[in-house]
Amino acid sequence: MSQGPLEDMALAAGYSMQHIFAVAPHLMEQLVRHSPLTYDDFVAQIDKDLNNVITITESGRQHHMDKGEDALTDHILSQLKQLYPSAHHDAQSGGHCDYYFEVRSAHGELYQWVAEAKLWNGFEYVYQGLNSQLIGSYAKGGVNNCRGGLIFYSKLSNGAKFAMDEWHTKLGDKGIHCHNRRSDGLRFDTDHKLNGGTGADFFVRHYCVDLYHAPTQQKLDKAAAKMQAR
Q1: 152-181: per-residue pLDDT in tens?
Q2: Buried b / exposed e across 95-123, counting CB within 10 Å, b at 16+?
Q3: In the predicted model, what is the mean pLDDT of the chain?
Q4: Structural domain includes residue 1
Q5: Among 46, 50, 64, 183, which has the highest number of CB atoms less than 10 A from its own CB?
Q6: pLDDT 10s digits, 81-138
Q7: DSSP state at residue 41
Q8: Pairwise CA distance, residues 181 & 150, whole Å
Q9: 3-state DSSP call for residue 104?
Q10: How far apart are CA 99 and CA 109, in angstroms?
């Protein structure tokens, strides 16, 4: 079996075929991030990378309890920008959206994915981010722009699933079909029609980032009490 230029370069530098095979999956992921073959491939890779970054962020949640929406979004995007140079916070896409990804496909088509981020302050606050901002302003129809995300940050002492269960239930009460719910309840999808329900299709994946950390909350409460006592 003949070798290609990439294999020849690696072998000439002293690497074995085992080394080449070991990095092949990472190379394929980089190709999808920078030159995807299809829009679905592009969206699936964003989903995988975003979930990994959320897991890392939750592991260090003691460092994020005192951060607001913009600081949390900047933290997550700073990690994603290492993988996606086009990832931006506050980019213009029918308004200032929180997460914006753009790439040219292997065929030269422009692919886009947008998301709105909210700190969980109850259903109505987050719903405004979904309905008025993401669906009402940033989302676009079309086969290469029709997917996005709603990401909310939870600092609830009773857990992120409590918030996600309420979110799921009340979206259903508004007639929004929720499906593809993950086994832990912390991810699911919804389908929407733009332009007040008469326009193009837009599909949203919902993510919850669990940031509650009891020892850190106790420190923040003590600091707030000291400030009030002055």
Answers
A1: 999 999 989 999 999 999 999 999 999 999
A2: eebbbbbbbebeeeeebbbbbbbbbbeeb
A3: 90
A4: no
A5: 46
A6: 999 988 987 654 555 789 999 999 999 999 999 999 999 999 999 999 999 999 999 9
A7: H
A8: 14
A9: strand
A10: 20
* Residue 6 placed within a domain: no
| 33-41, Cβ contacts within 8 angstroms, sequence gap of 24 or more | 33/83, 33/84, 33/103, 34/103, 35/103, 35/104, 35/105, 35/106, 36/103, 36/105, 36/106, 36/111, 37/105, 37/106, 37/107, 38/105, 39/105, 39/109, 39/111, 39/143, 39/144, 39/146, 39/147
> Would you say residue 54 lies in a domain?
yes
138 residue type, one letter: Y
209: nearest Cα among 76, 77, 83: 76
How many Å apart are CA 201 and CA 191, to the nearest integer?
7
What pLDDT score was predicted for residue 93? 54
Q: What is the DSSP letter of 82?
A: T
pTM metric for this prediction = 0.86
Provide the strand spans (E) within the chain: 91-92, 96-97, 99-104, 110-119, 147-154, 178-179, 187-193, 201-210
Nearest to 151, CA basis, from 177, 114, 185: 114
| Domains contained in the chain, number | 1
195 lies in which domain range? 11-229
- The terminus-to-terminus CA distance of the chain in angstroms comes to 77
DSSP state of 36: -
Q: Is residue 159 part of a domain?
A: yes
